[in-house]
Automatic annotation (TrEMBL):
One of its GO terms (biological process) is L-valine biosynthetic process. Residues 4-187 form the KARI N-terminal Rossmann domain. Keywords: Amino-acid biosynthesis, Branched-chain amino acid biosynthesis, Isomerase, Oxidoreductase. The keyword Amino-acid biosynthesis applies. InterPro entries: 6-PGluconate_DH-like_C_sf, KARI, KARI_C, KARI_N, NAD(P)-bd_dom_sf. It comes from Sparassis crispa. Gene3D superfamilies: 6.10.240.10, NAD(P)-binding Rossmann-like Domain (3.40.50.720). This is Acetohydroxy-acid reductoisomerase. Pathway: Amino-acid biosynthesis; L-isoleucine biosynthesis; L-isoleucine from 2-oxobutanoate: step 2/4; Amino-acid biosynthesis; L-valine biosynthesis; L-valine from pyruvate: step 2/4. The lineage of its organism: Eukaryota, Fungi, Dikarya, Basidiomycota, Agaricomycotina. Belongs to the ketol-acid reductoisomerase family. It comes from the Eukaryota.
Length: 346
């Protein structure tokens, strides 16, 4: 496949945003960061509207000087551009039932995740633009890097070109929030969703399992809870490894390890049966993620995620996971550390 196009400041035309009312549906980590960046880029404050129910997020927006509208439908009615920055699982209900009926026929809808667009869970008018502007990091970093004059990784795409200017608007918005300083990567809702869900349902479950079973094997071999927790993650060594990987290269970061470590990691990785892992991963990608199986299953339990206790399926998953030896051992270690800190202060 050809390399993806990367959009920089020089590719963006901010005049496309002049005079437009830009509404942020939600003022959480991403909403707060992107709205502030947009304003600091030069979008007038009176052209930025925060649509949020009366809560701490609305109070935060007001404290930062933004205009807040608690009536979501009313806010949507004046939007030329609307950022959907509420959780994926509630977007279809809020957008389809509240927002869409009052939204302008030529409005631009901006998503930061491809999930609801790829699985066609949002009801758009054919004359509207649908674009993805998806920072690849948490909101606090989107803001802090902007303040430092640096860019951040971001995906940008046009998913529906109702006005004929969808991609140009996506790039302009990417620049307005500060992404094109480092380069916004041309992507798609398909690509973002495939990678995101694959990481969540294939890569990380396997990593959790490897740590869980590795912990158990070493525990059986006589290693203590304290030594295991610190050796495996509480020392923050894994975080440092990934930081070095981002800076120097996924394999090149090994040069910071001992020769024994380098030899062990490289020879061990090459000796593992990658074919079996690859087939397992392909099965998850094609028969769970891309075919919509997970999406359908998740949609069935979406309402239950607002329940309390173990009637909430997510809480039940946490309960089962917390029964594992790794989690129980970590609780014992952290409790002991807290007792030691407490006794030292007395």
């Amino acid at each position: 496949m050809p390399s993806a196009k990367i959009f920089y400041d020089s590719d963006a035309d901010l005049s496309l945003l002049e005079g437009k009312t830009i509404v942020f549906l939600g003022f959480g980590n991403q909403g707060a960061a992107q709205a502030q960046n947009l304003r600091d880029t030069g979008i007038p404050n009176d052209k930025i509207l925060i649509a949020n129910r009366p809560d701490s997020y609305a109070d935060d927006a007001k404290s930062k000087g933004f205009i807040v509208e608690n009536d979501i439908a009313k806010a949507a009615s004046v939007a030329d551009v609307i950022f959907l920055l509420i959780p994926d699982q509630v977007q279809p209900r809020v957008f389809n039932d509240v927002v869409q009926s009052t939204l302008k026929d030529t409005a631009t809808i901006v998503v930061a995740s491809g999930y609801n667009v790829f699985f066609k869970l949002l009801q758009f008018k054919p004359t509207q633009d649908v674009v993805m502007v998806a920072p690849r990091m948490i909101g606090s970093s989107v803001r802090s890097l902007f303040v430092k004059g640096q860019g951040f990784p971001c995906f940008a795409s046009a998913e529906q070109n109702g006005t004929g200017k969808a991609l140009e608007i996506a790039v302009a918005l990417s620049r307005a929030i500060g992404a094109t300083k480092a380069g916004a990567i041309a992507s798609s809702a398909y690509e973002e969703t495939a990678m995101d869900l694959f990481a969540e349902q294939a890569l990380w479950p396997n990593i959790i399992t490897l740590f869980r079973e590795g912990f158990s094997v070493l525990k059986e071999a006589g290693c203590s809870d304290e030594a295991l927790c610190y050796e495996m993650w509480m020392s923050k060594e894994p975080a440092e490894i990934f930081e070095r990987a981002a800076e120097d290269g996924f394999i090149a970061q090994l040069k910071y390890h001992s020769v024994v470590s380098q030899y062990g990691q490289l020879s061990g990785a090459l000796a593992l049966d990658g074919v079996a892992v690859r087939e397992h991963f392909k099965n998850i990608l094609h028969n769970q993620v891309l075919n919509g199986k997970f999406c359908k299953e998740f949609s069935k339990i979406e309402a239950d995620l607002e329940k309390d206790g173990y009637d909430n399926p997510l809480n039940e998953l946490y309960r089962k996971t917390e029964e594992t030896e790794l989690v129980q051992a970590e609780k014992r270690v952290r409790a002991r550390l807290a007792d030691l800190i407490k006794s030292g202060q007395q």
